Amino acid sequence: AISLLEQAHQELDDFTSATGTAKTSAIAAEAHALHARTLLYRGQPAEGIRHVQAALRLLPADAVDLRCHYEIDLARLEALLHQYPGALKTLARVEHEKQAQHLPRVRIRLHLYRGQIRAMIGDDESSQDLRTCDAMAEKLSLPIYGCRANVLLGERAFFQKRDDEARTAFRRAREIASDVDHLGGALASIWQYRLGDAPLHNLPDTIEGLGLPELSTALLLSRCQRARTEGDEAAAEQFAMQALSIVQVAVLPLPQ
User: Fold this and answer.
1) Are 41 and 251 in contact (CB under 8 A)?
2) How far is CA 248 from CA 5, 149, 165, in A?
3) How many C-beta atoms lie closer than 10 Å to residue 163's C-beta?
4) 149 CB-contact burial (10 Å; exposed 0-12 / middle 13-18 / buried 19+)
5) How many CB atoms lie within 10 A of CB 34?
6) Do residues 252 and 217 touch, judged by C-beta distance below 8 A?
7) pLDDT in tens, the chain (256 residues)
């Protein structure tokens, strides 16, 4: 997929240079934005930033909706590099964009990812952002965002040792996910397994099929914790080392 995107960039950039039309610029921008998001999920934020910045440069000035979405993706990549002040500043630009007030998907993504970034730095305002996202998702029938918001609320509760609240959030995330959000549903299932609320079953196969380092690492850490709880230190060590091998080559949004 990455090699195909690289080839597409070259062809689109050459075509854009030759024609100079707004339409071709927008298509080239979308290709760079897609590449950036792929790199984000693969844990390669530095390269992802290069592509999302290229997308922003190519985007026609009147494409406010897409510009806001690309800025949000830029903030997510900045946060992966621990550039939290810069990421929040990027999101502030989106929030202050007048037209963004009338773009529901922009607003819901703003609350979701600002909530995630605020949670990373221990800002209590994160919970309000995530609850707002959940409420908007339900109102607008956009379950993916509701699922992701509840996963993040559950993670925050878990790390603050509020396990009952975490269980409620993860259970709601799973219910919302159904068949529409495989990533969010899988992450909620991993947390439920870690908390002892769900069996392992075919979860490893599901995670392997999704091929995302964030999910693979989360599952390995959960299996490490469960093994340690059950007194199997050898298995716990094995899972921990496997997780370490992933985070050595991928930058992941793990709790700070």
Assistant:
1) no
2) 25, 27, 32
3) 14
4) buried
5) 16
6) yes
7) 555 555 555 555 554 554 556 778 888 899 999 999 999 999 999 999 999 999 999 999 999 999 999 999 999 999 999 999 999 999 999 999 999 989 999 999 999 999 999 999 999 999 999 999 999 999 999 999 999 999 999 999 999 999 999 999 999 999 999 889 999 999 999 999 999 999 999 999 999 999 999 999 999 999 999 999 999 999 999 999 999 999 998 888 755 3
| CA 110 to the chain's CA centroid | 12
Residue with tokens 């800025």: 71
Task: Please report where in the chains the tokens 């159904």 appear, as a residue.
Answer: 178
Cα 252 from Cα 256, distance rounded (Å):
11
4 by Cβ neighbours in 10 Å (0-12 / 13-18 / 19+) ranks as: exposed
Q: What SS3 class is residue 81?
A: coil
> Which residues lie below 8 Å from residue 89, measured CB to CB, with a gap of 6+?
none
Category of 252 on φ-ψ map: left (φ > 0), alpha (ψ -120 to 50) or beta: beta
